Every structure is written in structure tokens, then in C-alpha cells.
Amino acid sequence: MNEVPVIYAPIYMDHRAEGYHPENPERVKRVLDAIRPKVIVEPQPVRKEDAFLIHDPDYVGLVEKESRLGYSHLDADTYVNDRTFEAALYALGGALTAYEVQGFALTRPPGHHSGVAGKALGGPTLGFCIFNNVAFPIKKLGLKRVAIIDFDVHHGNGTQEIFWND
Fold first, then answer.
1. Which residue among 32, 39, 46, 149 is least enclosed by CB atoms within 10 Å?
2. If you average pLDDT over residues 59-87, what whole number do you get?
3. Which domain holds residue 101?
4. How far, CA to CA in Å, does 62 sit from each of 17, 85, 142?
5. In this predicted structure, what is the pLDDT of residue 1?
6. Predicted TM-score (pTM) of this structure
7. Considering its fold, how many domains does the chain have in total?
8. In what order do the strands lie in the sheet with 104-105?
9. Share of residues in the chain with pLDDT > 90 (%)
10. DSSP states of 101-138 as a string?
11. Inside any domain, residue 1
12. Is-contact 43 97, C-beta < 8 A?
């Protein structure tokens, strides 16, 4: 039986809140410890401009600026630190790599609630998400027929918004 590659980059662990936050590196660590993957593929980050395929350049610039300033919040739920912007570019690269190698993307920061300009469809927050790593490989590769299975307890409003007119 072939092993499913797990796409993971150590920088994912650097996106962290000051103090407790439900979206934290421990979530990824527990998955890695539980599945003990035999095949780990480390992705490359995408370029900042690649994020413009799914997000408004002003939103991408805001995330970059806030990340460079150090620890802050984009909204009541969504934090950034000095490593968030880079980690988010790696997360987009991880999603693309998962498609290319038919693997499991164990990436963070998460992304499916992040819409074109951040908050999506009138949502009050980004739901811990930075760049939409669900939408990115679909847009980057120009895929036309895709099924997105979202088993998060909240629907992926950012992903819905990005594909609203497709």
C-alpha cells in the first residue's frame, strides 16, 4: 500500500498567539504525533503576488504589514505575529503541493474562512484564517470542476465568496 504524503513545513509552528488561542501549533503537532507519517513533503512558499489570485492586494498588504509589526489582531479572533505572513505563503504553497503529489496538506495558518478582502460574506471575523489555501490551488491551476468537502463545523464562507461567480 502506498503512503499518502503529508505536506508540512516547520514554519507552520511559528504562527502562534501570545497566550492560549484555540488555533495553535499544538493542533498540528498532535496530528503529526498521531499519524506518524512516513512521507513528509516540505513545500515551497508562493510569491506574495500569487496570493492576488484569491485576495485583494490591499488585504495581502495589510497582512504583510501587520505581520511585520509583530503581534497584533486582524479582528477579534484572528491574530498575526512576525512569522504569520511567511507561514501563510508556505500554507498556500503547501496546498498547491498537496494537489501536485496527491497528499494531505497539514498546513497552518488555516484559510477557508478568508474571502477576497479578508472577512467574507458579511462575516464578523476571519475565523482564525489568513489566506485561503482551499481556493488557491484551484485558481492557480485553472481547475474548472472541483468538489470541496468542508467538514469544519462552520461553512467555508471565504471559499464560497471567492468562487461565487464561477
1. 149
2. 97
3. 6-163
4. 18, 10, 26
5. 60
6. 0.95
7. 1
8. 40-41, 6-7, 104-105
9. 90
10. HT-EE--SS--TT-BTTBS-TT-SS-TT--S-TTHHHH
11. no
12. yes
